[in-house]
């Protein structure tokens, strides 16, 4: 399975708001294939030459619901100074979170959201996520902070039909939190 730009559903499609179902473990061949395709898409999207050739948008993450499959499957790949942090998770669940917030200074974007939605999207600065990771081929606990934590939370939100702009304060989109970590 290979994901193409036209496979991504947009926020105008009501399916994007659907809650995703847990998948059975061990992963079926079908679910394993979907999860691998999600991970491959993110990797391809981050290669400038490939992204341009295939007409795909750069991404740090994608959830299965974004290709119309309501299953709890996500892939996140975040290039950082000290290497790449990545996960291809089935049934990801946030099991602990910091009180401190964080947000991306310029706001968030999404493959499924073609229109710009300006504002700060407050998320937890640190999270611990549990799930089955295809890359490590085992159940894992991931302690994440910074951009990786934001990307994981963004994709996990998709599993309950939530989009990033649902978290922007409509009365004060650019409000700040002096305690928050700004990324």
UniProtKB/TrEMBL annotation:
Gene3D superfamilies: Peptide deformylase. Binds 1 Fe(2+) ion. InterPro entries: Peptide_deformylase, Peptide_deformylase_sf. It catalyses: N-terminal N-formyl-L-methionyl-[peptide] + H2O = N-terminal L-methionyl-[peptide] + formate. Its cofactor is Fe(2+). Keywords: Hydrolase, Iron, Metal-binding, Protein biosynthesis. Coiled coil: none annotated. Fe cation binds at residues 110, 154, 158. GO terms for biological process: translation. Belongs to the polypeptide deformylase family. HAMAP family: Pep_deformylase. Removes the formyl group from the N-terminal Met of newly synthesized proteins. Requires at least a dipeptide for an efficient rate of reaction. N-terminal L-methionine is a prerequisite for activity but the enzyme has broad specificity at other positions. This is Peptide deformylase. It comes from Catenisphaera adipataccumulans. The gene is def.
């Amino acid at each position: 399975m290979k994901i193409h730009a036209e496979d991504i559903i947009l926020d105008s499609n009501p399916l994007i708001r659907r809650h995703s179902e847990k998948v059975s473990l061990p992963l079926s061949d079908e679910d394993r294939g979907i999860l691998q395709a999600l991970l491959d898409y993110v990797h391809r999207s981050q290669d400038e030459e490939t992204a341009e050739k295939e007409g795909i948008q750069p991404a740090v993450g994608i959830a299965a619901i974004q290709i119309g499959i309501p299953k709890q499957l996500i892939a996140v790949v975040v290039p950082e100074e000290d290497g790449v942090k990545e996960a291809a998770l089935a049934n990801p669940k946030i099991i602990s979170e910091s009180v401190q917030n964080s947000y991306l200074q310029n706001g968030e974007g999404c493959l499924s959201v073609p229109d710009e939605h300006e504002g700060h999207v407050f998320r937890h600065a640190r999270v611990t996520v549990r799930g089955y990771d295809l890359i490590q081929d085992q159940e894992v606990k991931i302690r994440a902070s910074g951009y990786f934590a934001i990307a994981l939370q963004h994709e996990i939100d998709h599993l309950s039909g939530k989009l990033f702009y649902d978290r922007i304060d409509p009365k004060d989109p650019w409000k700040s939190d002096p305690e928050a970590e700004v990324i």
